[in-house]
Structures are given as C-alpha cells and as structure tokens.
Amino acid sequence: MTPPRDVAVVAFAHSERDGSADGASEPEMLLPVLREALRQAGLAPGEADFTCSGSSDYLAGRPFSFTLTLDSVGAWPPIAESHVETDGAWALYEAWVKILTGRADTALVYAHGKPTAGDPADVLTRQLDPYYLAPLWPDPRALAALQARALIDAGHLEEPPAAEAHAVLPLRAGDFPAPVDGAAAVVLAAGDTARRMCERPAWIRGIDHRIEPQAPGLRDLTDSPSTRLAAERAGAFRAPVDTAELHAPCTAQETVLRRALRLDGTVTVNPSGGALAADPVMVTGLVRLGEAAARIHCGDSGRALAHATSGPCLQHNLVAVLEADPEGETR
Fold it and tell me: Is the pTM of this model over 0.85?
C-alpha cells in the first residue's frame, strides 16, 4: 500500500456577500469565481486532474441543473468530473479522497446555490420525513426555534427580551441570515504540487462527516454528537485550534457547535462573519472550509477547524482540521 498523501487547499474564491449575484444564472455566478481560484493556483481551465461540484436541483427548480455549470468549467476536451447533491463541503471531501487514493494530484471543487429562484422555506422541507413531518411543512426557522427553545429550557441559552420583535418564537429576525445566491471554489493539491502552487498551503490533516437520525424528535437538540464524533475522527481534539469557521444557519446552533467542538475563549470563531453574514445555500459549508484555509494562507492561523452542516437542526455534520507547515519547515 502507498503511504497517505499530504493534501492541501491552495486556492479559494467566492462570490461577493452583498447579494449582487442574485438573479444571475449559475454559469454567470461561477465564471469569475472559477477564474479567480484557478488564477491563484496557476491552473488553466480544464487542467485540474479532477473536478467535483456541489449544488441542489431542488433549489434550481430543474433536474441536472449542475450540468449547465460545466460551460463555466470548460469541459472540452473531456474532464474527470463528479457531483454531489448537497453542500460543496461534501464535494471537497470526495475530491480529497480522490487525491488520497492517488487518482489525482490536483482537484477543482466548486459549489453554487440559487435560493432566490424559489422559496427556501418550502424547498428545504423536502429534507424531512415524507410521511409524518414534511406534510406539516415546518420550515428551517420553525425547526431552529424548537432547537432554541430546548437550549433555553436546558439553561444553555438566555431567553431573549419579550419586547423584541421575533421572527418565530423565541428567535428574532437577526438570529437568521438572509439567503443569497452565490458560488465558491477551492483548489486542492497534493504534496510538492501544493507547495509549488501556494506559498503557505493549508494542509488537510483530518476530515470526517457523521449523520444523525432524520427526525428531530429522535435527537437531543441541545447536543450534536455527530459533530463531536466527526471532530474526534478528524483529529480536532489532539491539539488546540486557534480559528474555527462554523456553519451555523442560526445563532442558537452556534451554541450547540461551540459546546460539541469544545471551543473556548482562546479560539477565534467565524472571523469571516460565518453563515450569518451570508448564506448561499449549498455553498455556505464550502465557504467555511475556504475561509479557514484563507486564514492559514495569509498567516493569521496555524491550526484551524472548519465545519459544515446539512439537514434540519444540524443533522449531518462535517469537520475538517487544517494546518500550516511548522515554522521554518517546507517539506
């Protein structure tokens, strides 16, 4: 067996967070983002050994919508390409495995989301149990409110003032992000290839994802054992991290994640603003990985944790640990 390979994030780009991508088509959103990520890595279109994308046909409102984005990638001559029907963080996981197995040395990973094409509150109910829960049409905000109430009752969260305007009790409008259209892309590379592409690569030292029961009623909503287990398997608890990028689509969920990941006051959490700053659905998790890597690229972090989630009330969770080379080492 060949020894495990070192794999790093060497480039990251994303859409502006001001909603300026709203109304653009998926290829229009992606093209400048892909160009910037490839420019940073010094790759030409189609030059990456493997390409993997993440998105949702439900959000786009048509089947196989991801095939349209290949016009932006450049798929002729033919490329090795794959797609996951979820957040782009899981596309990064697939590309990481591809490089680990020696099937590729470089990979382009991208994600795109158009929540403005429909009503995310309705679309995301399709993630729920189709017999008992989905027919009730509980949207993500209602489910997050149930989770917040459980946290308040358990003493992990303070009850907000009664005089404040609430989006859905006990949560306020400011506890949720506004969904925006957007795209993001990262480039992964192995070993010496990564060192040639990036002065300070963000090495993926561990990555794992775990899932919990689909029905929120079967879980303790004040805890996230899947996040904790993914973090443990990724090696997050072996040494302290200085930065954490958390995919928390609601402020109450950040409380759950901080406890599950054992983040104390010494850790800088969401220096990018996190999901509350912008939530391009199906892209937000990949952005967390990219932002954590960017902190390492610029020298602001030495060991960072990135988290992505999918499903109701933190059902499915991915955790990655990224590190810079030790000072003075350029292996």
Answer: yes
